[in-house]
Amino acid sequence: MADSAEKLVIKVTAGADAPERCSQAFTVAAVAVASGVEVSLWLTGESAWFALPGRAEEFELPHAAPLPDLIAGIQAGGRITLCTQCAARRDIEEKDVLEGVRIAGAQVFVSEVMAPGTRALVY
């Protein structure tokens, strides 16, 4: 079991445009949560669409865990954040996103990444 002081911040920029990279990010986040690691998953770029209800169900990648299951696993013990600018560029508002998804900007991201005991990955 991971030490509670450990945190993993994952920034995923890929969506349906790069399905393998996208799936890897969600898979790593879900496995980390299941392993007891504190996880913060940031949706940026094309992955921003997965903050909306029903969008994850449209994603398909052979031999990969279903995206809705991965999201549920991440939300069970981690946090999902949608980038403020990415949301604005797509006309996504707080009222539009999945329950539990927050919208936050670069200042919050930098604060999370710079916290002691934190590791960061970008996909």
In short:
This protein is of the alpha/beta class and 123 residues long.
List keywords for this structure.
alpha/beta; Hypothetical Protein Ychn, Chain: A; single chain; 123 residues; 5-stranded parallel beta sheet; DsrE family protein; 5 strands
Can you identify the CATH superfamily?
DsrEFH-like
List how many beta strands DSSP finds. 5
What is the CA-based Rg, rounded?
A: 13 Å
CATH architecture: 3-Layer(aba) Sandwich
Q: What string gives the helices and strands in order?
A: EHEHHEHEHE
Which regions contain 5 or more consecutive residues with pLDDT less than 50?
none
Strand content: 15-25%
Overall number of structural domains: 1
Question: What helical percentage do the residues reach?
Answer: 25-40%
Q: What average pLDDT do the residues reach?
A: 95
Structural class: alpha/beta
Q: Note the total helix count.
A: 5
> What's the story with the biggest beta sheet?
5 strands, parallel
Structure notes:
This protein is an alpha/beta fold and 123 residues long. It has a single domain, classed as Hypothetical Protein Ychn, Chain: A. Helices cover 37% and strands 20% of the residues. The chain has 5 helices and 5 strands. It has helices spanning 19-34, 55-58, 67-77, 84-89, 106-114, and strands at 7-12, 38-43, 79-83, 102-104, 118-122. A 5-stranded parallel beta sheet has the order 4-3-2-1-5, sandwiched between helices.
Topology:
Elements: E1 7-12, H1 19-34, E2 38-43, H2 55-58, H3 67-77, E3 79-83, H4 84-89, E4 102-104, H5 106-114, E5 118-122
Parallel strand pairs: 1-2, 1-5, 2-3, 3-4
